[in-house]
């Protein structure tokens, strides 16, 4: 089940961003870091799923002369109220003449409510024109930019946000009810009846000023000059990449559709085949813990990325430590054949929500990864090349015995931004869901490969 914050973001986006042009926030914890003029980085390990990471810098920190950023425009406020109430119930009765009767019923209900004021903050276009004319890149280059350059990351700047104006309380309730009765005739008549219920209520507070969604522009650096691309180009890089004789990203993946994604994931997964069974089991056990620990997951990704870039991966504490030790030599140099695919997997996992990673952890423990992998594969293959909205029919054989909001595969897909239907099993494909759905596929593919090797 997606978090209360993610549901609010989705509901607001449907009303205020129907074209899905803004990037939705997945985490309330980091939402305050995505304000206008703040810088974000994005690594280019995969062209199919790329996530933005805040770097604790604003555009002012990398330009000279030093001066405050121009004021942003306020649009709104927009008052938004969202209330959802649902109920699903059923009953069954089995009776045979002279043999008695058994009957039972069950019901599931849920509701959520939120009322908030949302405003839009955006940088006026003429502010960018003025800054491009009056300011240059600071020399020497900021140390954070030097590090991002060495890692091959691209840099973006936040140009627009949707944010809350006041503190918001989101309340969600979930209730299960069940009952049953039986009657057995005979010399001694037996009858019985039972009832039960389980209810759960959760309230989440979203602070004032929390960003729900944002828009970015790509920064391009050439010497002391800089430029802003308001429509980021897929092949344009922030830093001019060094000339190499190896296979570049454009040669490694030839098509930007499901076949390209499948080939990319298969290539990374194939590198894991050289791993011993003992090492594979240790790695998979550690990854299972990291799926439930977001800070540790990001810490491992950071250390591994640093090691692949600079040749030395520093030790990390907690559950990420044993995983890292599976991937480095005693001199702390990463074993590229192992560290590369694991770094790719970590990037895919980091692009998912916390609720999705928790479901993957549970599927991993239950050895139940093949089923959601086949389902996600079917969705991506039917919807490819992903640019148009469409309704996809799901083969009954992929759905198992049940299909609905309580099924993990349903939640995994719904959290990607897809609309699902129960009656005639369908998925409503949304182009904006491409990144998250591709990341989900890559995560399932590599975790499944590791499970097979153990």
Tally the structural domains: 3
* Counted beta strands: 15
Order of helices and strands: HEEEEEEHEHEEEEEHHHHHHHHEHEEH
pLDDT < 50 runs, ≥5 residues: 244-253
Distance between the termini: 29 Å
Give the C-alpha Rg. Answer: 25 Å
> Counting H and I runs of at least 4 residues, what is the number of helices?
13
**What would you call the structural class?**
alpha+beta
- Share in β-strands: 25-35%
Mean pLDDT: 83
Question: What's the overall geometry?
Answer: globular
Percent helix: 25-40%
Q: How would you characterize the largest beta sheet?
A: 10 strands, antiparallel
Query: What is the subunit arrangement here?
Result: single chain
GO biological process, one term: programmed cell death
Subcellular location: Cell membrane; Cytoplasm
GO molecular function, one term: phosphatidylinositol-4,5-bisphosphate binding
Family: Belongs to the gasdermin family.
Outline of the structure:
With 454 residues, this protein is of the alpha+beta class. The chain is built from 13 helices and 15 strands. The strands form 3 sheets. Strands 1, 2, 3, 5, 6, 8, 9, 10, 11 and 12 form a 10-stranded antiparallel sheet that branches. Strands 13-15-14 form a 3-stranded antiparallel sheet, with helices on one face.
């Amino acid at each position: 089940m997606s978090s209360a914050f993610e549901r609010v973001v989705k509901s607001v986006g449907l009303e205020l961003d129907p074209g899905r042009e803004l990037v939705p926030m997945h985490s309330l914890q980091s939402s305050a870091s995505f304000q206008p003029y703040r810088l974000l980085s994005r690594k280019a390990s995969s062209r199919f799923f790329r996530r933005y990471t805040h770097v604790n810098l604003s555009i002012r920190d990398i330009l000279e002369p030093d001066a405050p950023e121009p004021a942003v425009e306020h649009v709104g406020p927009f008052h938004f109220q969202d209330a959802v109430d649902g109920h699903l119930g059923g009953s069954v009765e089995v009776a045979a003449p002279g043999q008695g009767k058994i009957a039972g019923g069950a019901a599931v209900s849920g509701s959520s409510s939120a009322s908030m004021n949302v405003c839009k903050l955006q940088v006026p276009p003429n502010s960018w024109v003025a800054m491009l004319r009056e300011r240059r890149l600071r020399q020497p280059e900021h140390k954070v930019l030097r590090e991002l350059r060495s890692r091959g990351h691209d840099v973006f700047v936040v140009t627009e946000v949707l944010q809350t104006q006041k503190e918001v309380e989101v309340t969600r309730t979930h209730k299960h009810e069940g009952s049953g009765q039986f009657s057995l005739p005979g010399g001694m008549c037996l009858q019985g009846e039972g009832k039960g219920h389980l209810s759960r209520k959760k309230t989440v507070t979203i602070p004032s000023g929390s960003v729900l969604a944002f828009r970015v522009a790509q920064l391009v650096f050439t010497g002391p000059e800089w430029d802003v691309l308001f429509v980021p180009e897929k092949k344009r890089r922030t830093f001019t990449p060094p000339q190499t004789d190896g296979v570049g990203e454009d040669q490694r993946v030839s098509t930007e559709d499901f076949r390209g994604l499948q080939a990319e994931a298969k290539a990374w997964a194939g590198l894991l085949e050289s791993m011993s069974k003992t090492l594979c089991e240790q790695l998979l056990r550690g990854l299972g813990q990291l799926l439930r620990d977001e800070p540790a997951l990001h810490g491992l990704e950071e250390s591994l990325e640093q090691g692949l870039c600079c040749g030395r991966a520093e030790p990390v504490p907690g559950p990420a430590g044993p995983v890292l030790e599976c991937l480095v030599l005693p001199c702390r140099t990463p074993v590229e054949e192992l560290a590369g695919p694991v770094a790719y997997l970590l990037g895919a996992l980091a692009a998912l929500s916390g609720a999705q990673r928790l479901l993957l952890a549970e599927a991993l423990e239950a050895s139940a990864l093949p089923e959601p992998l086949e389902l996600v594969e079917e969705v991506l293959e039917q919807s490819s090349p992903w640019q148009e909205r469409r309704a996809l029919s799901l083969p009954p054989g992929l759905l198992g015995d049940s299909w609905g909001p309580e099924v993990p595969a349903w939640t995994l897909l719904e959290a990607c931004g897809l609309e699902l239907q129960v009656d005639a099993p369908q998925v409503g494909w949304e182009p904006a869901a491409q990144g998250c759905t591709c990341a989900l596929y890559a995560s399932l593919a590599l975790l499944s490969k590791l499970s097979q090797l153990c």
